[in-house]
Predict the structure.
Amino acid sequence: MSNLNTMMTPIIWKNDQLHLLDQRELPRSETWLEYDDAYAVADAIQTMVVRGAPAIGVTAVYGVVIAATNIWKEHTTEWQQHMDEPLTALANARPTAVNLFWAINRMKAVLNTLPSRISPKAALLEEAVLIHQQDIEANQQMGKYGSSLLAEQSHVLTHCNAGALATGGFGTALGVIRQGFMDGKIAHVFVDETRPWLQGSRLTAWELMKEEIPMTLQADVAAGALMASGQLDWIIVGADRIAANGDTANKIGTYSLAVLAKYHGVKVMVVAPCSTIDWSISDGTNIPIEQRHSFEVSSLNGVSIAPDNVAVSNPAFDVTPAALIDAIVTEAGVVMKPSTKTMNAIRLKEML
Ligand code: MRU
């Protein structure tokens, strides 16, 4: 099993600092940025230096380590009382991916048990590294479960980037594709460019080409014609938040793909760790959808491509109803035909 020291990860803790691979610059340059301030970490999440649901959760836990370490230097005895502000800044960085709140809550649980007079750094760092490592292990387990669902030499389509870059390492949807390729299950991967931020063309294509997995990049609007051609077996995507009934929020465009898939008889697989499931909401109507800045739509590489002051809608995610999903793959097992009832099996396993 790969671990933190051997895995390709966009997040590294080194020399008492958080290092993030700047995903805004990929694939043109591999630039690492260093962080020793929790508010700067929150900003990195908001501005997409790091993105992808599990990756922003893992980043935030290191942000909590940084916040506590810095606060303890100034307020040695009552440092816990000063943590609300940086924790809120981290939690407010992005609204849809529930992994962010799940990860911060795990750190809070440790934080609240720590004595006031001892530096919190070692205990919090230990929990952060554990969360990071567990995310990688979950991805590897999901890779195996997901690969087992594929027939030999499958042709698959993925949307956005749910790879090593979007997680602690290995990837969710791309983890299944990686494992599937190693198992002889993947013949070819079609990659949606994923307008407007282009996670597909900039990040997924970069990851797949590095590993020499056969792939073709296409415009998002080409997906319907590809399905009509009969070439596609599965659509494999990640998730930002899954409701208790299996409704799934993921990158904008996933819902359209799932509707097209139903019409064409293509199967849909959602791959996400249990930390992406929000058991507190019964269905997808309650998932908050992030609206991002208009310039992401009205410009390309900083150059305006629309009339000045054009009105823009830029929802970053949409919700795919569970009825359009064939399988949800988690590290705790696979849910076929997700519904409140079938999802409960995962919930029970999580409680064990
Ligand atoms: O806006 P992003 O790039 O953070 O959106 C990412 C996605 O939608 C991914 O599919 C999702 O977070 C799963 S990542 C393993």
